[in-house]
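The pair is quoted verbatim as follows:
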Amino acid sequence: MAVDEQPRGANRADARRNRAAIVRATIETLRRNPEASLPDIAAAAGVGRMTLYGHFPTRAELLEAALADAIERGERTLGRLDLVGDPADVLVQLIDTSWMLVDESRALLAAAQKQLPPARIRELHEKAETRVRELLTWGQREGAFRADLPVGWLVSVTHLVMHGAADEVAAGRLTPDDASRVIRETLLGAFTGQNRGSELKAALVDDWEG
């Protein structure tokens, strides 16, 4: 029995390693080439096509697994943030870190949006949205964020602005560094009711002239 169990255990370990390699390769390959095919991804992962199809029979299943993995790794990063203190300062921390994660996986997200229903993508982001919802609720209680709009709407605005910035970067109309600042200014202005447009305009003009 023990002699037979070892190969099975080794096979399972190999299968786990192959699956992890395929998921990592999906993220990296799509970052370089958003139109990469499944054979391209298999080659990047160092596995055969049949191995890839054995784990992920369809492109949609592969993209869902890769997106779930990217979101989970992002959650571990966000979980290390020190979310105490002034709600507006905490929001800035959350925005900057979230944008870094979104920027890293924006090609993957764009590919997933073509294959997966919007409801499923929203479901995969549920933990991240819960974190934002809790922060905004806390900020409203503390008087740091406007309370005349529902928290659910503010969460949706956060989602739309973040992914809208990713679309602008992909289109070449915004750089990743500018996107981080634009997201901060947009959301802080919307959530606090403060008009910080002049500050943003000045910063953008300085960058353009520089």
Summary: DSSP finds eleven helices and no strands in the chain.
